[in-house]
Amino acid sequence: MGDETMPDKLKILVVDDELPVCKSIASVLENRNSSVETALSGEEALKRDLKQRYDLIITDLMMPGISGLEVLAAIKKRRPRTAVIMITGFPTIKTAVESIKAGAFDYLPKPFTPQDLRNIVQRVKASRKTDRTFEIDPKIKTHQPQLYCIPDNSWVQVDRDGLVTVGIHHKFLKGLGPASAIELPEVGDKIIQGEAYAVIRDTKKHSHRLWMPVSGQIVSVNKEIKNDMSLLEREPYGRGWLVKVSPTQLEDDLNSLLVLNP
Fold first, then answer.
1. Can you tell me the distance from the alpha carbon of 151 to that of 154, in angstroms, rounded to the nearest whole number?
2. Lower CB density within 10 Å: C or N end of the chain?
3. Which residues carry this modification: 4-aspartylphosphate (predicted)?
4. Neighbour order of strands in the sheet with 207-211
5. Domain boundaries, the chain
6. What is the pTM of this model?
7. CATH topology of domain 147-260
8. Residue 165, class by beta-carbon neighbours within 10 Å (0-12 exposed, 13-18 middle, 19+ buried)?
9. Is 10-127 a domain of CATH 3.40.50.2300?
């Protein structure tokens, strides 16, 4: 079955209505382990997909005609296991979660560097060996009956004091293996929902960004993580939390997220 077999060489399709963008992305990703083709519209992408089954599709969100979200929906209907990365110049959580709800692997906001692109593709390669579902592993305990999340990226829980606690989704690390270092924001920093608030480095020194699920001001950072990175894997919803935030528009932000039930 074409959907079940996963050849060693990653077959990638890049979709963007601007030819220079397609060529630039293809030049970054083309190597002996990956073959890259391009399409200049959603319509062309879907036609190509009928002839060639791709392992990964990287598509711009906003395109004339068939949009990136429509490409995503059609691909997921044909082959749910095909990974899709959305490239967007509008990195709001609403568009990001909308695409992730529809099955996107992740989104990459413009502008991005070649290394940003390589890193997220590396996560795709690693995640093809794991089961990507939204339920929490029963072996991982949580302290609240309900969490909200950006699937496979970050979670947030509302605290009794009106603050919120933010941490890493336990499946994020499954795509990169053990974390070797982490960069966290400073107390007092103001971060908008959908922006990067932390950077995790894997053992190969590749950087991977975490997206902030709620807008607000950082009021506390978990310093214990710096001394014991294993907490991210062992207790991602407990002692492995990352930051505490004073939210500015909590109700609207939570409505944009998915509920993650233990």
1. 7
2. N
3. 60
4. 179-183, 196-202, 207-211
5. 10-127, 147-260
6. 0.79
7. OB fold (Dihydrolipoamide Acetyltransferase, E2P) (2.40.50)
8. buried
9. yes
